[in-house]
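Lab notes, practical 5.
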Amino acid sequence: MTTRQSVDKLLQQCEDSIRFAKDQLAEGQKQEHYNESEYVKAQQGLENAYKELEEFSHSANAQQRDQLYRMRLQVQNLQNEMILEDR
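Output from the prediction step:
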């Protein structure tokens, strides 16, 4: 069973990754990937967050699984945006 504290900590880390990725996406749109290493770092952070969310969901209760699923959708949507912008 996943503890509430560990789920809250993971969700906070995911929100931080999302915030950083959104900043990098906005910068990339303005500067056409002037700082590509940070853009890639943001994409990697989102991928790591996605994997952790997936792992946590296996041992979470129903309410936690729902929270993790919603966060996973946010992460996945942002990943898709960044991939499309990268083209």
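Observations recorded by the TA: The mean pLDDT is 91. The helical segments are 4-31, 36-57, 62-86.
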